[in-house]
């Protein structure tokens, strides 16, 4: 598993590298000292796992996750236990308190699931499919969300409202830019304001002017414009 270590302290990175040596499934492909460095390394190396410090000069580990379109598996490493609750709120793979104990590291590694690595060409495309997870931060609340669980993206000015579970947090992204990244086998641009997850469609009715009214399993009703209706019918094999 291609692994990146993100920590501003050189000795902390060195110690973690030494602790990881016994784990043959872990391949350390790089180190990063801050958020900007990590962003570059992630774009270049495409790690499957990140050991991530939370408190770093300038921006935090949460800021890094918020900046990524798709988020790899994450194990937090930090000396600040006050962040523990927040880390668990975002459903990280695990949380390791510094100094890292070998037995706790082993527990974290054992939580990793061996998954089939997608072909390199698919990784290069960076298309976001239902198996990808994204990091969503809204105020003090943070989540790791699997795209399969996101039923709707709704444009709201310069923000996007993300619908999953009972949550509707706002993220500062463009719906057009997101639409270009999402796998069109799973997500459909219903209108100027909405992208829906086809797997969450519960009911479809005819609507005004040749459009359609789609009801999602979450209860939301979304109008599919006349322009998009024929494409939607093809997607849903109507």
Automatic annotation (TrEMBL):
The keyword Phosphoprotein applies. The keyword Phosphoprotein applies. Pfam families: LytTR, Response_reg. The modification 4-aspartylphosphate is found at residue 53. InterPro entries: CheY-like_superfamily, LytR-like, LytTR_DNA-bd_dom, Sig_transdc_resp-reg_receiver. It comes from the Bacteria. Keywords: Phosphoprotein. Residues 2-113 form the Response regulatory domain. Residues 136-238 form the HTH LytTR-type domain. Gene3D superfamilies: 3.40.50.2300, LytTr DNA-binding domain. One of its GO terms (molecular function) is DNA binding. This is LytTR family two component transcriptional regulator.
């Amino acid at each position: 598993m291609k692994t990146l270590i993100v920590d501003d302290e050189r000795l902390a990175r060195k110690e973690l590298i030494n602790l990881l040596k016994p784990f043959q499934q872990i391949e350390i492909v790089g180190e990063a000292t801050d958020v900007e460095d990590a962003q570059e390394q992630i774009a270049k190396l495409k790690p499957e796992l990140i050991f991530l410090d939370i408190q770093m000069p300038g921006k935090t580990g949460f800021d890094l996750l918020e900046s990524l379109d798709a988020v790899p598996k994450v194990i937090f490493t930090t000396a600040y236990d006050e962040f523990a609750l927040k880390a668990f709120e975002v459903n990280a793979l695990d949380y390791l308190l510094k100094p890292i104990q070998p037995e706790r590291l082993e527990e974290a590694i054992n939580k990793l699931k061996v998954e089939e690595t997608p072909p390199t060409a698919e990784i290069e495309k960076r298309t976001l499919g239902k198996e990808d997870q994204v990091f969503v931060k809204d105020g003090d609340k943070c989540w790791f969300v699997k795209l399969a669980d996101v039923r709707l993206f709704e444009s709201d000015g310069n923000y996007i409202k993300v619908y999953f579970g009972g949550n509707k947090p706002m993220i500062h992204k463009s719906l057009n830019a997101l639409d270009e990244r999402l796998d069109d086998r799973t997500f459909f641009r219903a209108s100027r304001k909405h992208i829906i997850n086809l797997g969450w469609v519960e009911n479809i009715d005819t609507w005004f002017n040749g459009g359609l009214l789609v009801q999602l399993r979450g209860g939301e009703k979304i109008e599919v414009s006349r322009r998009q209706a024929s494409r939607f019918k093809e997607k849903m094999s109507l």
